[in-house]
């Protein structure tokens, strides 16, 4: 990784005065696209032009630091108030508004910048940098050139940092656990599987996935997923009475070689029959990364691990891709299951999805089943397996074992 390089230092101790200091993190986003569309000479020239224009913004007392070729940090000193910090944002926008002319081409300089400010000396440099980075991320997701780190953004960011900072500790303390929710076969309503759903047993109360998963940084998500893979496979190994377990994987990491290796290794080391494990990936993510995922997961499937397409009906699965999907199970999303007993349209759609799944040899699961009448409807339209609060919420392993003990012998849904 390249080390930051001080490009321009326009400050001298004498000229600096106590006042507002703003940190701007800027990046040129178009390098990859320019390279693939126009070639590396054009991309190199555009990157140099981006750096030149950024340098033109360095005023008295300011510093420009290069993080890497297409990413910089601009320290803006001698600002008097927040309006001046905002004005600096407008200057950045104006500086990159015009495309760069290269030979007879007009190349847009797609720059994304975040600005955070604080009072000089009081402001902790790292916090300001992280705030500016967060604002830059916000600029990227909203397709704006500049985003100022306002109070709401900063408060949100602080909450995210705190959350992410606590993940490692929570993993060590075994506060992050899989709870298991039973899946029953539609005919006899007997246990045929269970889905692992993560819970954070936080000292302040139980956190559901929606409260922390969307806020995790990629490295924490990976650490958590590895932890859950181990828990799931070790639970299978230590509890032969457990039915096959499903594990949810985020589509963005489900083809990571190190994760796939971990799954294989854990299955081998703990002598767990791979057919006792199923991987669930939401339809939207599966469709978005279909080719890469299928390639990555083919080896797991080859070993006998089964694959499930979660939230079916919501993620825009391209029907033309169905024949090559290599998926063993589809889970009809709760949106179609909710009120299925009252809405003929939902019933019809659930039936169509069940037929589609069956045609391609998949098991069809309906999730979010809350009433007996919904369960009956779903069975009638052809769903093989039912899952929902009607049977049980997700439970910690020991409670799940008590739930299982109260059930009739495991059935066979085939
Ligand atoms: P999902 O995979 O679609 O899981 C089903 C969600 O519906 C779960 O919410 C479950 O508790 C809830 N549910 C089950 N039956 C019923 C019901 O009858 N009625 C209602 N209203 N809800 C029901 P949960 O546990 O809060 O999980 C939410 C989402 O978080 C999951 O949706 C999944 O996308 C994600 N998630 C959960 N655990 C993991 C995990 O270990 N890894 C990853 N990557 N994602 C996970
Ligand atoms: Ca799921
Ligand atoms: Ca689902």
What does this structure look like?
There is one protein chain. With 414 residues, the chain is an alpha/beta fold. It contains 14 helices and 17 strands. The strands form 3 sheets. It has an 8-stranded mixed barrel with strand order 9-10-12-13-14-15-16-17, surrounded by 5 helices. Strands 1-3-4-2-7-8 form a 6-stranded mixed beta sheet. It has a two-stranded antiparallel ribbon with strand order 5-6. α1 packs antiparallel against α2, α7 packs parallel to α8 and α8 packs parallel to α10. The longest helix has 22 residues. The radius of gyration is 27 Å and the shape is elongated. The N and C termini lie far apart (54 Å). About 1% of the residues have low confidence. The protein binds ligand C2E and calcium ion (2 copies). One calcium ion (CA) binds next to loops.
Largest sheet features: 8 strands, mixed, barrel
Class computed from helices, strands and strand pairing: alpha/beta
* Distinct compounds present: ligand C2E, calcium ion
Output mean pLDDT: 90
How much of the polypeptide forms β-strand, as a percent range?
15-25%
| Low-confidence runs | 13-17
Radius of gyration: 27 Å
Determine the N-to-C terminus distance.
54 Å
Quaternary status: single chain
Report the helical percentage: 40-55%
Would you count the extended β strands for me?
A: 17
Tally of helical runs? 14
Shape: elongated
**Strand order in space, largest sheet:** 9-10-12-13-14-15-16-17
